[in-house]
Amino acid sequence: MKFTIEHLSKHFEKKEVLRDIDFTFEEGKIYGLLGRNGAGKTTLFNCINRDIKTDGGSFYLEEDGVRRELKSEDIGYVLSVPTVPEFLTAREFLKFFLDINENSIRNPKSIDEYFEYMGIAPDDRDKLLKDYSHGMKNKMQMLVNIMVQPKLLLLDEPLTSLDVVVAEEMKQLLKSLKQERITIFSTHIMDLALDLCDEIVLLSHGELEVVEKSNLDNQEFKTRIIAALREEDHV
Ligand SMILES: Nc1ncnc2c1ncn2[C@@H]1O[C@H](COP(=O)(O)OP(=O)(O)OP(=O)(O)O)[C@@H](O)[C@H]1O
Q1: Interval 55-78: pLDDT, tens
Q2: What is the sign of the dihedral through the CA atoms of 94, 43, 5 and 204?
Q3: Ligand 1, from 10, 14, 15: best to mutate by most atoms within 8 Å of Cβ?
Q4: Distance CA 21, CA 31 (A)
């Protein structure tokens, strides 16, 4: 499977954020998307998820040699600021989510198995989501996105608010999920990107570019990435 972006452009007023991007992502890989603040990472995700209108461009999935347009049901999108229905308990939310996605969730587990899988303690499962911490809401958002087993998983800085233990668990979880999908992961934490991701892609000057690791060690690789990002024009 391949996910291809063709001629994607997006501007806000006078600012050209994405400039005629052409890029192909491959199945089974986690891509670390790095870019300076304001480089356009969230904008790129929002364009792919059709949350905002693009100026032009197309998105395709190719499976077994057959190419078709990307559909919304192909995508899981974990936002940096988790959005969950605050007025429901975590259990009610999962039940509702399972009900409305009955036809698209393959081999569903029980609600408590999902909580277990995500490390959400029994005492927290019947609490209102408005009383969940930022990190716990993040876990719930991650869970519902994983449940539908999307072909394309977009993660916008999802681990930033998690404590070290949970962040490590989530890292292992993402690694275990990477087969049969394409994962694109934006982060500012370089060590996390190097540790978790198979490829590092820079979003710089509105374009995507792979940074080749070749035979560099991690420190040299980091230096190369930072040097490339420094060139970003910040006006
Ligand atoms: N709705 C909008 N209206 C006007 N400008 C916008 C809008 N959304 C984003 N921008 C601008 O587009 C640029 C890219 O923003 P975006 O949030 O995609 O960057 P980012 O790479 O995700 O940044 P960060 O790493 O800080 O989260 C910024 O200059 C931002 O101000």
Answers
A1: 999 999 999 999 999 999 999 999
A2: negative
A3: 15
A4: 16
Residue 141: what pLDDT?
Answer: 92
Question: What pLDDT, on the 0 to 100 scale, is given for residue 63?
Answer: 95
Which of 189, 187, 195 is CA-nearest to residue 156? 187
Residue pair 137/81 in contact by the 8 Å Cβ criterion: no
Residues of the chain with CATH 3.40.50.300: 2-84+151-230
Instruction: Supply the CATH classification number for the domain 2-84+151-230.
Output: 3.40.50.300
187 lines ligand 1 (CB under 6 A): no
Distance 11 CA to ligand 1 centre (A): 10
- DSSP 8-state class, residue 74: G
Ligand 1 centroid – CA 44 distance (Å): 10
* CA gap 116, 135 in Å, rounded: 16
Tokens of 116: 């277990």
How many angstroms separate the alpha carbon of residue 231 from the centre of ligand 1?
Answer: 18
Q: Is the CB of 38 under 6 A from ligand 1?
A: yes
pTM for the full predicted model: 0.93
CB 222 within 8 A of CB 194: yes
Give the separation between CA 233 and CA 134, rounded to whole angstroms: 32
